[in-house]
Amino acid sequence: MTGEEVLAKAIKLLGYTNNQGNVELTQRVRSSATENINIIYADLSKIEEKNFKPITSLDQKIDLPDIVMYDCFVYGLAMNIARSEYDTDNQREFAILYNSKRLSLSKTAKRIDVIPGSCDL
Length: 121
Fold this sequence. Notes:
Mean pLDDT: 86
Number of strands: 0
Largest sheet: none
Number of domains: 1
Low-confidence stretches: none
Radius of gyration: 16 Å
Helix content: 55-70%
Distance between the termini: 44 Å
Strand content: under 5%
Order of helices and strands: HHHH
């Protein structure tokens, strides 16, 4: 998923759309988009044990698994956008969602090679 794609999903989650449901980006959201994306990207890269290389434009691909992008990243980005827009209700709601989804990633997103308590006979 590219920066532009994840940004559009986060904006729709926040309800920052016009009457036709199309994404409405203020200049402030557009100008801080890569910074807000990179904050979440850096955070989730640690959990996924990937080397973090920040994006420099919105057309660049974010190198994280789809499950992380759809189940967690968009909520973190929505949280950051709401914060930058002084939208405290949405910021609080998406902070709770992001942090709970982030916590579940650290427990379940890793592959288990050996089942605890099993033995090889």
